[in-house]
């Protein structure tokens, strides 16, 4: 077949396929144009998932007749001051979006330059351009896209449902809204109207906009992140580990104001939370990277969703370190959502008839006094002598962040009184974090102290598990666990980490065998060792079901206050829940 020049309309449709993948792509290009035009208000209307109608209106600078005519030509742009493709400070710059949209849909653009006498309009349908004519418009620019892909109908069958396409378009706007809290956004999609009011550009404004986007809980459960090194500046908000999500949709990453889905940044985000989240949970974060445009290439993908850093190692190190410092600073913070749900779900109910006796399983059938006494007796109370001994220190402990231990419930939860409320601590989760942080510190310093077992423990395993453990014997020895082969299908445990005390060696080794079988050799050795340390700390912690003395409970609280990341266990679950006196009074209708 001979080589031939493709017709212009075919070239435009090919370009449209690269730039316009789905309705969300159109929304992204048009809203970015509005932002680059200096708009402070952007309104978006979506109908039929974007297939039927996408309308974006803004109060930006607008265009004159010459600019309007050029805007629908390929490779025409107002966003490049020179031919330097590395010096890009705008969101759009390729000059392909509007002609690509016009090649695949019915496009109309109405615009009015500020302080101009009249508005102008141009239409493009299937690549055919109309003459410029007068229009009715108060200010800025209004772009309407109707019948998307009518000129390339084969693309329609690859679209998802109307609800899915609408959700994708809204997600695009949410990300842009997060990047620009100084712009007000209004979205009308079917019966839904979503508004993101104008917010400030400072840290407080970003926090409020994040709450606008993902919900009010975000403001109370995020921490500021700030770092700067070698010309790279990081700012933003990072969610507490206990405020995690089941997917990554609440992770918002920006480079020079551009929303991206970059592998380097997403990997750095995982690294920053590596010790704090269980697998399958994703942190909430809005991180903004600012650096010299010459240090990042934003021209690696037609949709501009990916970037390439000149020094990815530097960027990753800054993000990981900044997250770790911010989260360690919030060591004694845990998510507010648990307490908030408790307060919000508690509603006044009709008074129960205690005189008829409780009907719960195991509960007494006597009156209120008997029922209350029976419930009180299930709480592990300090003895009279212990209360007398502790009295001088209790008042001082009330002023501490986690207060003074008052009781133990179900041999699992410690109830502590603070100066302005109460704290409920999961004793196993809290001690697990303490042991893990000590293991990490010892591993980084002089190595983990070991204790020799008086009688070495023999642990029987499957042959593959035995082989996997023995292959990692040297690495496990660094963590204080010394293993030797002991015939077929068994290992001999001679030493264990001293921090664990009298741990269940059998279950510990079996659990490690299952974990090490899935050891990721692509990860650095340190990361794999920390993952094993997390498993070890779980087995060496105070277990649920163990009754603690008052001095033991208070010692655990004080140790938590000295430990980094004490607000969550190694699996990302909260170690304690705090209820302020104000919240308790709301439960009882006193507020």
Q: How is the topology of this model organized?
A:
Layout: H1 8-19, H2 23-36, E1 41-47, E2 53-58, H3 65-71, H4 97-104, E3 106-112, E4 119-125, E5 128-129, E6 133-135, E7 140-146, H5 162-179, E8 184-189, E9 192-196, H6 203-214, H7 217-220, E10 222-229, E11 232-239, E12 251-255, E13 258-260, H8 263-272, E14 285-290, E15 296-297, E16 308-309, H9 312-329, H10 337-345, H11 368-377, H12 384-398, E17 404-409, E18 413-418, E19 421-426, H13 427-444, E20 450-460, H14 463-471, H15 473-478, E21 482-485, E22 490-497, H16 505-516, H17 525-539, H18 550-562, E23 576-580, H19 581-587
Parallel strand pairs: 1-8, 12-14
Antiparallel strand pairs: 1-2, 2-7, 3-4, 3-7, 4-5, 4-6, 8-9, 10-11, 11-14, 12-13, 15-16, 17-18, 18-19, 19-23, 20-22, 21-22
Helix pairs in contact: 1-4, 2-5, 5-6, 8-9, 10-19, 13-17, 13-18, 14-16, 16-17
Description:
The protein is an alpha+beta fold and 591 residues long. The protein folds into 3 domains: 8-196, Heat Shock Protein 90 (2-Layer Sandwich), CATH 3.30.565.10; 203-329, Ribosomal Protein S5, domain 2, CATH 3.30.230; 336-347 and 373-591, 2-Layer Sandwich (formyl-coa transferase, domain 3), CATH 3.30.1540. Helices cover 37% and strands 22% of the residues. Strands 1, 2, 3, 4, 5, 6, 7, 8 and 9 form a 9-stranded mixed sheet that branches. Strand 12 and strand 13 (258-260) form a beta hairpin. Helix 8 (263-272) runs parallel beside helix 9. The relative contact order is 0.08. Residues 343-369 and 375-379 have low confidence and may be disordered.
């Amino acid at each position: 077949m001979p080589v031939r020049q493709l017709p212009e309309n075919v070239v435009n449709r090919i370009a449209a396929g690269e730039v316009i993948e789905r309705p969300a792509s159109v929304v992204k290009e048009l809203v970015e144009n509005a932002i680059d035009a200096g708009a402070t208000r952007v309104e978006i209307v979506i109908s039929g998932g974007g297939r039927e109608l996408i309308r974006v209106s803004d109060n930006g600078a607008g265009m004159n007749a010459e600019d309007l005519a050029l805007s629908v030509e390929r490779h025409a742009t107002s966003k490049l001051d020179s031919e330097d493709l590395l010096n890009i400070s705008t969101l759009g710059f390729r000059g392909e979006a509007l002609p690509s949209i016009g090649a695949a849909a019915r496009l109309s653009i109405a615009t009015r330059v500020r302080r101009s006498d009249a508005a102008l309009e141009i239409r493009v349908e299937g690549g055919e351009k109309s003459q410029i004519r007068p229009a009715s418009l108060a200010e800025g620019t209004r772009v309407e896209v109707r019948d998307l892909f009518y000129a390339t109908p084969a693309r329609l069958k690859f679209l998802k449902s109307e609800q899915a396409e609408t959700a994708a378009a809204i997600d695009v706007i949410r990300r842009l809204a997060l990047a620009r809290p100084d712009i007000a956004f209004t979205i009308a999609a079917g019966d839904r109207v979503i508004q993101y009011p104008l917010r400030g550009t400072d840290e407080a404004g970003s926090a409020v906009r994040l709450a606008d986007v993902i919900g009010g809980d975000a403001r109370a459960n995020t921490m500021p992140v700030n770092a700067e090194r070698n010309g790279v500046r990081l700012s933003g908000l990072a969610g507490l580990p206990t405020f995690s999500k089941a997917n990554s949709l609440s992770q918002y990453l920006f480079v020079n104001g551009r929303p991206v889905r970059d592998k380097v940044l997403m990997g750095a985000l995982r690294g920053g939370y590596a010790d704090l989240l269980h697998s399958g949970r994703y942190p909430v974060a809005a991180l903004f990277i600012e650096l010299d445009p010459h240090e990042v290439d934003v021209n690696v993908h037609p949709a501009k969703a990916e970037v390439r850093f000149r020094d990815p190692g530097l960027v990753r190190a800054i993000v990981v370190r900044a997250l770790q410092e911010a989260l360690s600073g919030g060591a004694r913070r845990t998510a507010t959502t648990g307490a908030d749900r408790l307060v919000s779900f508690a509603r006044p109910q009709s008074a129960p008839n205690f005189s008829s006796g409780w009907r719960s399983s195991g509960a007494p059938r006597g009156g209120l006094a008997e029922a209350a006494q029976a419930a009180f007796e299930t709480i592990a109370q300090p003895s009279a002598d212990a209360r007398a001994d502790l009295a001088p220190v209790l008042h001082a402990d009330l002023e501490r962040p986690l207060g003074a231990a008052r009781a133990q419930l179900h041999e699992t939860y410690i109830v502590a009184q603070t100066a302005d409320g109460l704290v409920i601590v999961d004793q196993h989760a809290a001690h697990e974090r303490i042991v893990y942080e000590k293991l990490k510190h010892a591993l980084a310093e002089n190595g983990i102290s070991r204790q020799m077992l008086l009688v070495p423990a023999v642990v029987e395993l499957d042959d593959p598990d035995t082989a996997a453990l023995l292959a990692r014997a040297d690495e496990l020895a660094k963590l204080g666990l010394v293993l030797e082969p002991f015939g077929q299908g068994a290992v001999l445990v001679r030493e264990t980490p001293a921090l664990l005390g009298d741990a269940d060696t059998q279950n510990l080794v079996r659990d490690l065998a299952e974990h090490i079988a899935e050891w990721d050799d692509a990860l650095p050795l340190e990361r794999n060792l920390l993952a094993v340390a997390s498993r070890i700390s779980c087995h060496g912690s105070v277990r649920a079901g163990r009754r603690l003395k008052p001095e033991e409970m208070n010692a655990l609280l004080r140790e938590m206050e000295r430990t980094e990341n004490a607000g969550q266990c190694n699996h990302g679950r909260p170690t304690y829940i705090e209820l302020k006196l104000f919240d308790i009074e709301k439960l009882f209708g006193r507020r």
